[in-house]
Amino acid sequence: MMSACDALSECQTATVDFQCDASETPALFPNDRSLRRERAAHRSLSSLSSAWRRQTPPCHHAQHSNMNATTGICPEELEDLKEAFAKIDLDGNGFISKRELNELFRAANLAVPGFRVREIVEELTKTSDRLSFEEFTQIAHGLKSTEVGKTFRKAINKKEGIRNVAGTSEQAGTQHSYSEEEKVAFVNWINTSLENDPDCKHVLPADPDTDELFTAVGDGIILCKMINLSVADTIDERTINKKKLTPFTIQENLNLALNSASAIGCHVVNIGAEDLREGRQHLVLGLLWQIIKIGLFADIELSRNEALVALLRDGESLEDMMKLSPEELLLRWANFHLEVANSPKINNFSSDIKDSKAYYNLLNQVRPRGTDKGIPPIIIDMSGIREKDEVQRADLMLDQADKLGCRQFVTATDVVRGNPKLNLAFVANLFNRYPGLKKPENQDIDWGSIEGETREERTFRNWINSLGVHPHVNHLYADMEDGLIIFQLYEKINVPVDWERVNKPPYPKLGSNMKKLENCNYAVELGKNEAKFSLVGIAGQDLHSGNRTLTLALLWQLMRRYTLSILEELGDGQKVTDDTIVLWTNQTLIQAGKTSSISSFKDASISTSMPVLDLIDAIQPRSIRYDFLKTVDLTEEEKLNNAKYAISTARKIGARVYALPEDLVEVKPKMVMTVFACLMARAMKRT
Predict the structure, then answer these.
(1) Is 605 within 8 Å of 598 (Cβ atoms)?
(2) Residue 1 has what pLDDT?
């Protein structure tokens, strides 16, 4: 399991004395049963307090792991391998044939001798004729220990547009690198997105031809602003330090940015505030891409854009379509318009778009034609499609995209090289501006079956993705149907998984559901026997079929155990209960001279957010601006404003909170518990 320093971002910690006498707070638990619970919690808390005091070494920045947990390959190399694999996997099904392995090695700049390729192919033939990306990374990892591995990074870094970064990965012994093209694309996107924001005038516009970006993000303001552009209102603007910045207030901004990024589903475990403050290029670009991608993909799902039903194929149900990832929907959207244009379809946004012809036809199909009132027609000049030089043809195509205000992310060279990341962003932006779809009418479609993602589901999905699971979870239920995500979550809470019992993709064409069901049965078995979860009435079939209520029941227990395990790790394994957290909260509030308190995580006073705000101020004095708050006779809007400020400030002082402001206002006990637990863990950390 990740360390507590990794699980909770860097922070400035006020030391709290946890010694107390149970007799000091009897009024908080007026009846005998509550008093017994308080005494039990007090015993647990006292034990925890002793353990925490024994932790004399300060909690420095966690040693950032640059290795993928399953493959042993650092994130930068993994991105290179993904890019190479995408170039060969033309149909985008996640597999290549063994005959394409040699071509894949060349695409990945792995100089593998012919005899070694033949040996690998012979081994593959014993089990399958296909190779998945995961299997390829295992092969690449094995090759790294040979002479091939010694030349791997050298070859990768010779690729045009790749720049080395000072410093190496201790685990892999390899040099970090980043894409110059991606840096330019992100700088231009940020400049455009924040050009009218007065809070960014001190660093923007940044020059895309220099490294200004890496300095500009150092105070955290740009990161906070970009997060809010991707997911509106994630960060309360009142909590961003904007003027007279000091090392302390900059640290708070970076804490706020990292914890908020985690809350919207970014994987930031290997990124610390110091990395951003020092402008470590590969980490900055990695975080920015996650934030930008979340914003670009926000509306590419059926529940938020019913016009996507126009892409429904014959014999396909809405449920089938809702399982598609944003990338798959974008590809289907592009092919929908290309088919109308009598243009060849594409299988990817890398090799298939290099000649710009698909882009020309796509632009011409989605352009405004003047049929909508107030929107003048835009004419796309198609003559450039006949240009013989690919780079010049791409440049002429981008001139046409510029007419639509959609030239962002790619240059002509990026198109010709088939940069999959930047071309994906280019197409996503085009979709968001000009989808060119109309909601079908007079069709027998059960619109009531399109259920949007609930707040609880979104919170769970973001929490799961922030832990760095593979593959990325786009749809909570569809992406769990084979149990693989759940097994990874079990490992996060130290429940051992026998991977020999797990069926892994590629699944057979016949019997794939049976293989996935076997995984789900094993997931329930682990939950009952190893994790000791309460899973009464839950079977593997419920997880496989996406039963919302029962799947959420398991996910909640996983999230709860994960949250409490961080506290227990800080407390040398001492057990923590809800009562322990409630008692600690009240004692901390009393010691700080606060008047608020809670009797449980259902306490109605939590709807005002004042117990949370007072606790934050007790942990880090003077962190709350009480003049921003309304404290008596609150309207629902005022309660929500308090809650937004509370959640953002909790993240600002270093608590990795996933709950939403509405959870406090509505006093959702499960999410409320995680807020207080995360604040308790924040207080336990020593710096």
Answers:
(1) yes
(2) 42
pLDDT tens digits, 461-491: 999 999 999 999 999 999 999 999 999 999 9
d(C-alpha 600, C-alpha 602), whole Å: 5
| Per-residue confidence (pLDDT) for residue 482, from 0 to 100 | 96
Q: How far is CA 283 from CA 210, 253, 268, in A?
A: 17, 17, 9
Q: Quick: pLDDT tens for 176-197.
A: 678 899 999 999 999 999 999 9
353-376: average pLDDT:
92
Neighbours of 504 (CB within 10 A): 13
- Class of residue 305 by CB neighbours under 10 A (exposed 0-12, middle 13-18, buried 19+): middle
Q: How far apart are CA 427 and CA 188, in angstroms?
A: 16
Q: Which residues of 21-57 are buried (b: 16+ CB within 10 A; e: fewer)?
A: ebeebeebbeeeeeeebbeebbebbbbbbebbeeeee
Which of 276, 278, 282 has the alpha carbon at shortest distance from 261? Answer: 276
How far apart (Å, rounded) are the C-alpha atoms in residues 248 and 394? 47
Tell me: pLDDT of 151 over 90. Answer: no
Q: Residue 16 and residue 33: Cα distance in Å, rounded?
A: 28
Cα–Cα distance, 326 to 431 (Å, whole number): 11
Long-range contacts of 341-348 (CB under 8 A, 24+ apart): 341/365, 347/90, 347/91, 347/92, 348/86, 348/89, 348/90, 348/91, 348/92, 348/420
Residue 681 is predicted with a pLDDT of 95
d(CA 335, CA 427): 12
Q: Is 372 exposed, middle or buried (0-12, 13-18, 19+ CB in 10 A)?
A: exposed
Extract the tokens encoding 521: 């049965």
Q: How many residues can be counted in the chain? A: 687
Specify the residue for token string 């020309």. 360
177 vs 227: CA distance, rounded Å: 24
Q: Which residue has the tokens 């970009």?
A: 226
pLDDT confidence band for 47 (50 / 70 / 90): low
Tokens representing 116 are 């070694």
Residue 43 binned pLDDT confidence (cut-offs 50, 70, 90): low
pTM: 0.79
Note whether 177 and 76 are within 8 A (CB): yes
Instruction: Using the CB atoms, write b or e for 450-476: b if 16+ within 10 Å.
Output: beeeeebbbbbbbbbbbbbbeebbbbb
Strand pairing partners for 107?
Answer: none
The separation between CA 499 and the C-alpha centre of its own chain, rounded to angstroms, equals 25
- The answer, yes or no, to whether residue 493 has pLDDT greater than 90, is yes
- Is the sign of the CA dihedral 405, 406, 410, 411 positive or negative? negative
| 395, pLDDT greater than 70 | yes
